[in-house]
Amino acid sequence: MFFSALAALHAAFIFWLSSRPFPEPSVWNVPGLDKIVHAMLYSILAVFIFGALYRGQGQLRLKYDFILPILWATLYGLSDEVHQLFVPTRSFDPLDVLADASGAVLGQWLLFRYFGWLPALSLTWRRKPSHDAAG
C-alpha cells in the first residue's frame, strides 16, 4: 500500500509539472537537460510501481517484476505527452517518451543491481535443452 501511494503521488506530481506552461527558455539552456529530468522522474516512477506490484514471494520474474513497471511507467509517459497537447506552450515530443522509457529501464536496472537481483531473474520462456555431443 505504501508504494502504491508513492507511485500515485509521484504520477500526480509529474502530471502537475506537465500541466504548467513551459518555463522560461533560460532555465533549460543546457542541451538535453529536459531529457535528463524526464529520465530521472520516470526512473523513480518505475521503482515505485515495482514496489507497488512486488509481493516479495518466490523468485523474481523478468516479465512481471522487471518489465511490467517499465511498461507502466512508459505508458504513463506517453499519456502525459498526449496530455501536453492540451497545455499552452507544451507539445507532444516523442523524444520525451524515449527519455521516459530509458529512465524507467535505468531505474529498474539500478534497483535490481543494488539489491543483487539481476542474476535471480527467472526468464518466463522455456529454453530448448542443449544436447551435448558427449552425451
Give a quick set of tags describing it.
elongated, 4 helices, mainly alpha, 135 residues, 61% helix
Quick rundown:
By secondary structure, the protein is mainly alpha-helical. The chain is 61% helix and 0% strand.
Descriptive overview:
The chain contains four helices and no strands. With 135 residues, the chain is mainly alpha-helical. The chain has one domain (2-15, 34-120). Helix 1 (2-19) runs parallel beside helix 3 (62-84). It is elongated and about 50 Å long. The N and C termini lie far apart (52 Å).
Q: What is the strand and helix layout of this fold?
A:
Layout: H1 2-19, H2 33-53, H3 62-84, H4 94-114
Helix pairs in contact: 1-2, 1-3, 2-3, 2-4, 3-4
Q: Please provide the count of β strands.
A: 0
The helix fraction, in percent, is 55-70%
Q: What is the number of independent domains?
A: 1
Order of helices and strands: HHHH
| Average pLDDT score | 85
For the record, give the distance between the C-alpha atoms at the N and C termini, rounded to a whole number.
52 Å
Strand content: under 5%
**Which ranges are low-confidence, i.e. pLDDT below 50, for 5 or more consecutive residues?**
none
Per the principal axes of the C-alpha atoms, what is the gross shape?
elongated
Q: Cα-atom Rg, whole angstroms?
A: 18 Å
**What composes the largest sheet?**
none
Tell me the number of helical segments per DSSP (H or I, 4 or more residues long): 4
